[in-house]
Amino acid sequence: MAAMPGGGQEPGPRLRDLEALLDAAADYEIINLDARGNVASWNSGAQALLGYSAEEIAGKPVSLFYTEEDRAAGVAERELQAARETGRLESEGWRVRKDGQRFWASVITAPIRAADGQLTGYARVTRDISARRQADAMFRGLLESAPDAMVIVAPSGRIELVNRQTEELFGYSREDLTGQYVEILVPPRFRGRHPLHRDGFFAAARSRPMGVGLELYGLRKDGSEFPVEISLSPLESDQGRLAVAAIRDATERREQEMRLRRQRDEIMELSTPVIQVWDKVLALPIIGTLDSARAARLTEGLLEKIAEYQAEVVILDVSGVPTIDTQVAQHLLRTVQAATLMGAASIMSGVRPETAQAIVHLGIDLGRLRTRNTLRDALQLALVMLRERAGMASIAADMVTGGTA
User: Fold this and answer.
1) Residue 213 burial (CB < 10 Å; 0-12/13-18/19+)?
2) Best-predicted range by mean pLDDT among 169-178, 267-276, 332-341?
3) For the chain, what is the largest distance between any 2 Cα atoms, rounded to a whole number of angstroms?
4) Global pTM?
5) What is the DSSP string of 235-290?
6) How far is Cα of residue 130 from the mean position of the Cα atoms in its chain?
7) 8 Å CB contact between 234 and 266
8) What does the alpha-carbon distance between residue 214 and residue 217 come to, in Å, rounded to a whole number?
9) Range 134-253 has CATH code 3.90.950.10
């Protein structure tokens, strides 16, 4: 470091060693100030950063490098006082070069004392962090403009940063959330396992949706819960690896899915109406693909109608089913078995030649289920079955009464 002409006390051996070491650091401004805050020595990094030569700056007050506003407010004097009282001060703010250009600086100020504790001056290290500040500002701008709530979390689980959408979505201010554990946004019933999931993410950090296949919920400040979708991404920073959670309110999507599900169920019910064609005879025309969920609803609806109408014969018309595979056949057989347990016999109609061939090819055993080609044939068979049942009921009654009127 260059000593200033007439610029105060000569630094001690240890300080000179430190100055020599840091003098090679051209990215850093290294200044020694005297006890009054005037420049006593000056390294090459300071000259490159601020534009003054050692001769120009000798004995000048450190406030020369501050903006006019900060000089008027006495910022330099307050920083030196804080360094004296605390032993070390870290600060950031605007500084001014010789040509008047401003830059954003990170400054560390430490007092220098003699063996008897007497203040002899200050050591000051300054670095231009304008680029980092610009990058930080750009990052924060992107964070604020994101359509989702963005929550940045440290490995400890504490919230480092949130955006405006987070405040609006959860009802907290960012001051309320910063430094809190992220579990503050999680409903109590999920908090016990959440730290394990968080630790698992940091152990193998990668961009991914959170809770695939699960219904996730967030907790607002007022205690209300709402469904959410969460995407997680790792973020490398000066503080180490952080987790970025993008949180979206899924209430509207869930409600839309429920509406679509209800509409689909209603359409399915309309496509498989249970019709009373005669007294004790029901017909169930099946149209479209028969899956497990639809078959369960079909069976449930049919059993309710059998009980309501005291039906004895049920006609399952499959002329509207595009294909009969093993799964469809099993669904039909289960429906027939359920109807039998309710005391109703079943007839399957609408069996086309290709359907019959498929059933034979698949080796599907339809058991004692009666089949007919057309619904008309099935209705005729239903009348015959009703007469047979009526006759058998009459014989059974005569046996009970001994054949007497």
Assistant:
1) exposed
2) 169-178
3) 143
4) 0.48
5) EEETTEEEEEEEEEE-HHHHHHHHHHHHHHHHHHHHHS--EEEETTEEEEEEES--
6) 33
7) no
8) 10
9) no
